[in-house]
Specification:
heterodimer, A: mainly alpha, 5 helices, 0% strand, B: 522 residues, Alpha-Beta Plaits, two-stranded antiparallel ribbon, globular, binds iron/sulfur cluster
Amino acid sequence: MTGFNVLGMRLRQAVCENWILDGVSVTSALEHLGEAVFDPELFSKHENAIVTAWNEANPAQRITLKKKRGLYGVFQFLNLQKA
Amino acid sequence: MNKLNILKTIRFAGILFFMISMFIFIFVVSYSSFYVTEDIIRESVTEEHHLAAILPMAEQVTGKTYDSKREIISDLTGIMEKADEGLSNDEKMWSYSQGVYRMNIMKKSVTGFLPGNEFLFLWQTIIAGCIAALMFILPGYWLRRPGIDNDGVYHRSVSNRGWIGITLGFMLVAFYIFIYWYPEYIVNWIILVDPISMAISGNPASQWFLYGVLYTLAILVMGVRMLIRYRHSNYHLVRTGSVMFFQLGFAFLLPEILVALNKPYYDFKDLWPLNYDFFYGWQIDQFLQSGSLGMFMLLSGIGLSLVGVPVLTYFYGKRWYCSWVCGCGGLAETLGDPFRHLSDKTLKAWKAERWIVHGVLVLVVVMTLATLINYFSGYQLLGNLTQQLQQWYGFFIGAAFAGVIGVGFYPWMGSRVWCRFGCPLAAYLGLVQRFKSRFRITTNGGQCISCGNCSTYCEMGIDVRWYAQRGQNIIRSSCVGCGICASVCPRGVLRLENGPEEGRFNEPAAFDLSEDKVKVNF
Ligand code: SF4
Ligand code: SF4
């Protein structure tokens, strides 16, 4: 993972930054996309559509969306990175 | 004609029709011709002993045509004052009943074009006004694309303290002054809504019913505008729908239905300390005398104020009330939306705000405690001191601040003057939000481009940009969570969130630059 083009979606900068620093793979980032979502509350979610599109384009590297861990998970992830 | 021109023509016609109905509305109220008869007095004065005291003097007002409201008001007041002199303290009408009787006598003795044509004029003024406003608002669905568009707010007279805005402000102030202190002068308007009141509760309308009708219509019609304007955002659609629902259902219809069922007039969502008379003696007596429903009202009111408010604010921030439920907030978020950018963002305003709003909170707590002590001691301890406190509070805070300034100053100081500077419930919710809550507006790292849109459109006068530039979360007691700052941000920097308390007050992040990267300290 070297950079992002989020096409108008809003992603959480701190999460994205950590992904880049950690050099996580595209598949892992996609699987955990829920953690980076920064769209306003009550907006429709796009993670499923993105993962489905990925799977259609890359049948060899099928991924499944990890359940969104909620804000608490996001903060845990960020604190883990800091420590 | 193409579609665009048709829509623009409809808009223009809407403005025209609105002006016409406003004109008729003002014409209706300015017309005065009264003819009082003894029968009218008999019908209007409902207490036997009051009637007995008034009737001997009835001749002074009956049998002649009054062409001025001032004259008939002063004559009616004259005979009632006289009548009161002959009555013992327990029997007196005092100014309250005098006002009710005077209003009812005047309503029935209006002559001229109005009697018999109430529906026609209701249609020509209030209903036509709403239709005209919707003719202006609805084409916006096709004329504006979804998304934020604030072009020209500082170039329009109405939204930039121009002459239209200032005129509107004066009219609102005048309207509130009449409603609170001179309702007899707008008796013709009250006659217009009489049929509606009779249909809902079976009682003739008072000035408060007129006020409720206009207030609710303002929220509904301008709510439609909000729904169109922010239709790209589910957050705004849901919360606008919510305030419209609570105003129509809980604030307007339910209390009237309760009255129709012979139950106390009560708005379940109007919480103490905003609803400052909740603990007044007469109110508590009324609850206690109304059986299990009255008990439920009393307990739900206390429970919501003392437990519901802190718990819900802990989980969602004060927005659950201020921009989803409250009537004052509802008006600010609908009728007030075109004026939101007029709020004062200076540090001086913030300092004044904290003194004033917390001062009102202290005042209302002291007044309520004194009232309760007095109530439970059988009015032995403090005599009529509490009554005077209540009168002062009702006059200065309840009427002058919340009504006249709170709404009348929309076009001058923005839509949340009362919520920001005066509302004791907002102060209480704010204390919880500031010190013990999961709510915050998260700033997304170093993405802010310092455009200042967020601060401009914050109706509470919070300098959101100051936080965003520093990469710091916005945690302010005054934030009502309207979510507009997040919507107007061109970079999507801000997000309203309910998260774990830990890490809520983050360190400012965006300024931490080093040679090879922007470092974000979380
Ligand atoms: S800070 Fe944002 S959400 Fe809070 S009151 Fe201001 S504009 Fe609304
Ligand atoms: S609107 Fe967004 S980009 Fe503009 S100053 Fe506010 S946070 Fe920064």
